[in-house]
Amino acid sequence: MRDVAIVAAGMTRFGELWDASLRDLFAEAATEALKNAKADHLDALFVGNMSAGQFVGQEHLGPLLADELGMAGVAAARVESACASGGVALRSAFIEVASGASDVVLAAGVEKMTDSTEVTEVLATASDQELEAYHGITFPGLYAMIARAHMERWGTTEEDLSWVSVKNHKHGALNPKAQFRSAVSLDDVMRSSPVAEPLRLLHCSPVSDGAAAVLVVPLADAKRYTDRPVRIAASGLATGPMALASRKDIAFLDAVEASARRAYKMAGHGPADINVAEVHDCFAIAEICAIEALGLVERGTGNAAARKGDTALGGRLPVNTSGGLKAKGHPVGATGIAQAIEIFEQLRGEAGARQVADARVGLTQNMGGSGASSVVHIFERV
Amino acid sequence: MRDVAIVAAGMTRFGELWDASLRDLFAEAATEALKNAKADHLDALFVGNMSAGQFVGQEHLGPLLADELGMAGVAAARVESACASGGVALRSAFIEVASGASDVVLAAGVEKMTDSTEVTEVLATASDQELEAYHGITFPGLYAMIARAHMERWGTTEEDLSWVSVKNHKHGALNPKAQFRSAVSLDDVMRSSPVAEPLRLLHCSPVSDGAAAVLVVPLADAKRYTDRPVRIAASGLATGPMALASRKDIAFLDAVEASARRAYKMAGHGPADINVAEVHDCFAIAEICAIEALGLVERGTGNAAARKGDTALGGRLPVNTSGGLKAKGHPVGATGIAQAIEIFEQLRGEAGARQVADARVGLTQNMGGSGASSVVHIFERV
Lengths: 382, 382
Known about the structure:
2 copies of one chain form a homodimer.
Chain A: E1 4-11, H1 22-37, E2 44-48, H2 52-56, H3 61-68, E3 75-80, H4 85-99, E4 105-112, H5 119-124, H6 139-154, H7 158-172, H8 186-191, E5 194-196, E6 199-200, E7 209-218, E8 230-239, H9 254-267, E9 276-278, H10 284-293, H11 302-308, H12 324-328, H13 335-348, E10 361-368, E11 373-381
Helix pairs in contact in A: 4-13, 7-10, 7-11
């Protein structure tokens, strides 16, 4: 397999973007990435998208978006793994370039959620329909059960959950692309409306529109496009039991651990080598479970990480410097690519007020549903 | 890139399968493929599916179906390019194995259409929403316009279209897996109900349920699984303008030509080397346009191929020996894999009453929407 690098990125602001359609959002992000690399052609395009069919009545995004970009003809396809669709699109681009099949590949993610009046129902189609969705449970409910299990097992508190939100909003306030650029206090979070107890409104990521894109090329060609390429050292994809009821321990994310194990092995790195990480905090409890399954903290201690400041900017291992899904926003198909962009900027030293000093190795973790699919990428400064 | 082979296949019957759910269908096909190869593990699973979110309320098929197969943990994802989703799944498996990232990969396709009461509307989400679907046009209408254009340009007649259906039903009658195992006469087709003139009911593929799966491994490992592997000599994916209104000549399928050009180049074969082909006859006119764009006949002469018997079993170049989408059925996400299975069986000499004598090189062509995406694979007997 050839060494692979990201050489450019483009991203819309995330938020309730009433004036932009799905194709507008994609075109803005993709055009920016191509312009930043001064690239005038693509060999392939992979689009991560969860549910444009249900959200806006449009499937078949590969050719639609290639055409929108003025590149009808290019090999293009959509990939989907619910909220991990963006991460899977990046993996597809990585394998495509690593294989030698293509030399210039755009990995993009896009979701237009705010046009739908049934967002919660559509998102629920990422759970197990027969064992979960049919019975009326939605994602806040599934993650509330995970939170309850973590509380029972490890003594996690509502305050622990809330510190994750406080941290991520503090980071998001520094990110010009974030949906919420406002700090929130512990009290704000603890007093926000209950959604699915113990989860409150400010423990939940929002409904968002947005798109993100990165240009992926062989590392050997990277200097043609930028003087600061970022190597994709590894891509690990894994699944786990779909329904919560099928899992041994719902407070632990098996698929995240398996995807991380594959990525660490491919990269020749371990958790201790990671300087900055973006993880999938669709709900505050998800960040706690993710950093445990990634091995970034000891099992059962993820609850203390935000409270103690370990995962804040300036802490031992800054997590979700972008603001995470919580504050940056979570246009589901775009999230995995947006995570990669945050790490790309961190490793290039371009993260501005969010910059982690001397970040050399970064990690992204993007998951689908209640964690039944997970993709981990590891990136290195070249 | 490593050489890649298919070593086993599994497929459900295609039809209105009221007793089987999406996951049942997938499990039947996938289990059969694994059993035929005596394979007890997978490194990765790619599932082609167009619209399970809209048809049956289930996205996130990667982990769901890995779990259903008893293989929770495996790297798995869904790929989508409307009715070309199966072909894109096969391409994903091909690249995955060719890259060296995985050694044992299942490429599957599945669609459960008959549970939906809005099949035509869901399928229309594969067209350009803003330029086509919003205005009420559906796929029979789009292909009717393509047929009209071909008639204007090349003198194609309703009888020419009808001979395609007669041929494919004749082939389908020999296929135990086909939805329609009944021959139809020219008169039957010409007198069937108008759907979107000039297209009549018997010019249209049906609404179907079904699944298909193939096991893809490095050619160097293939003999561990079977004594008759079939090499995937090439995989070509391309797109073209999404909306008919954006195309220079709607009677010609640019994306099909581009995908074929890529595949022929990769395989080192030309159209003259092909002994048997499965092409995407979602409507009779589509087969005529496809064989022209693939270079299997001269441009403008596809209309005569079925009438003259050239593309029938026993003819110069048998096309759609399986019965094609018309008679075998068209569970959209499964179609691209089912096409590959027909060629796999032909090249192994296992096609029974449909066998093409001494078939050495075969081709599949699978497309999405009104031809905005197309995937061509070329296969060789080893």
